């Protein structure tokens, strides 16, 4: 095997989908030499359990927003140039192209993050003023003729639709489904009459949807669980507790064992965020034999549930209630069909596809 020299660029401060992708990419390349360039405060780096050849910290702090934040990112671009100067890499992967303004050989799209604050869940622009300004000033001009990779059709279609709005002409845009690192044996007999929602407990996850559905389905138990770290998350956690009916239990910061047990018990997995780029928690739920119920928008509906093939969708609270009821009453053979669909997300499949992709990109 040829050992590749890889430069990986990406933020590691927070725990979220983007950081999970960085971990997945790192694990796919763990037999190669990886230099990592990351943000100033990389609190969660120890969780990757990967030996990076060299670690470089830039001066970037992710809290910096607006014009000053953009100017800071331009300065960090110079830092990356200095760090990489004189070094020969076989492949450079930028896992956060909106944050680190540097054209890698591969640039990973977590949704269309360049315009995330200015589009709805279907990729429709709320206003054309900001994209027009980006296009006129060539803010992201460094990504002309760049290679972009993403995790599914939802973001792929957004990218084809929206790159012209900001004046970027990519060389190519590809997709590879994100994987799970392990898939345990599942016994569907161990399931309980439980509806689970999992993920970071914050307002943007639209978790009040769980509360509204639970108020209608008083005879069923709902659980909301996930990380609560920052002050705004703690405030929202307390707010959720104050409005939750008796049949909703909220569990903050579960251990890995607690998280696994929740997935093993849950009969139904209820996802609530409409503008979700992918939704690895939905994949995890399927891998444990839970039936997913997701909004009819975003990556979970398009790329995971495949518009009703592997679960149910909803657009309103009333539809959500009916979808959960349908999921609870699903025959065993249909449940087994959904469980078996988890093979789409095997880690070995992702690793093989990713390494083949890198080899193909390297031929240009």
Key structural traits:
alpha/beta; 364 residues; 37% helix; 2 domains; Rossmann fold
List the helices and strands and how they pair.
Blueprint: E1 5-9, H1 17-28, E2 33-38, E3 54-57, H2 66-84, E4 91-94, E5 106-108, H3 129-137, E6 147-150, H4 153-162, E7 172-175, E8 192-198, H5 208-216, E9 221-226, H6 231-243, E10 248-252, H7 256-265, E11 266-270, H8 280-287, E12 291-295, H9 298-304, E13 312-314, H10 317-328, H11 332-340, H12 347-361
Parallel strand pairs: 1-2, 1-4, 2-3, 4-5, 5-6, 6-7, 8-9, 8-11, 9-10, 11-12, 12-13
Helix pairs in contact: 5-10
- Biggest sheet strand order reads 3-2-1-4-5-6-7
CATH architecture of the largest domain: 3-Layer(aba) Sandwich
Question: What level of helicity do the residues show?
Answer: 25-40%
Taking the alpha carbons of the first and last residues, their distance comes to: 21 Å
Discrete helix count: 12
Shape: globular
CATH topology of the largest domain: Rossmann fold
Q: How much of the polypeptide forms β-strand, as a percent range?
A: 15-25%
Provide the CATH superfamily of the largest domain: Glycogen Phosphorylase B
Order of helices and strands: EHEEHEEHEHEEHEHEHEHEHEHHH
Radius of gyration: 21 Å
Mean model confidence by pLDDT: 93
Query: What is the CATH domain class of the largest domain?
Result: Alpha Beta
**Number of β-strand runs:** 13
Low-confidence stretches: none
Characterize the main sheet.
7 strands, parallel
Structural class: alpha/beta
The number of domains is 2
């Amino acid at each position: 095997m040829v050992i590749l020299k890889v430069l990986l660029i990406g933020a590691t401060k927070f725990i979220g989908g983007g950081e999970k992708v960085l971990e997945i990419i790192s694990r796919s390349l763990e037999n190669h030499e990886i230099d990592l360039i990351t943000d100033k405060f990389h609190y969660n780096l120890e969780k990757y359990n990967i030996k990076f050849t060299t670690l470089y910290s830039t001066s970037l702090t992710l809290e910096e927003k607006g014009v000053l934040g953009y100017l800071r990112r331009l300065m960090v671009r110079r830092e990356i140039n200095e760090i990489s100067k004189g070094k020969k890499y076989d492949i450079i992967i930028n896992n956060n192209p909106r944050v680190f303004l540097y054209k890698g050989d591969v640039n990973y799209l977590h949704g269309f993050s360049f315009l995330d604050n200015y589009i709805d869940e279907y990729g429709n622009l709320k206003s054309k003023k900001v994209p027009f300004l980006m296009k006129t000033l060539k803010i992201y001009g460094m990504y002309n003729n760049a290679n972009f990779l993403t995790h599914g059709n939802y973001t792929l279609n957004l990218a084809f639709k929206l790159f012209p709005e900001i004046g970027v002409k990519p060389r190519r845009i590809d997709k590879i489904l994100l994987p799970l690192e392990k898939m345990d044996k599942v016994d569907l007999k161990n399931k309980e009459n439980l509806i689970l929602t999992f993920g970071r407990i914050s307002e943007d996850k639209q978790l009040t949807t769980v509360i509204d559905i639970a108020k209608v389905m008083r005879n069923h138990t709902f659980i909301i669980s996930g990380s609560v770290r920052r002050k705004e998350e703690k405030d929202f956690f307390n707010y959720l507790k104050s409005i939750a009916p008796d049949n909703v239990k909220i569990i903050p910061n579960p251990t890995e064992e607690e998280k696994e047990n929740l997935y093993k018990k849950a009969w139904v997995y209820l996802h609530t965020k409409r503008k979700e780029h992918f939704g690895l928690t939905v994949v995890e739920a399927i891998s444990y034999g839970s039936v997913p119920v997701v909004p009819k928008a975003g990556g979970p509906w398009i790329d995971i549930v495949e518009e009703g093939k592997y679960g149910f969708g909803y657009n309103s609270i009333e539809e959500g209630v009916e979808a959960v009821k349908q999921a609870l009453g699903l025959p065993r053979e249909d449940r087994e069909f959904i469980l078996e669909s988890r093979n789409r997300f095997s880690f070995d499949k992702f690793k093989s596809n990713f390494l083949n992709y890198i080899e193909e990109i390297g031929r240009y």
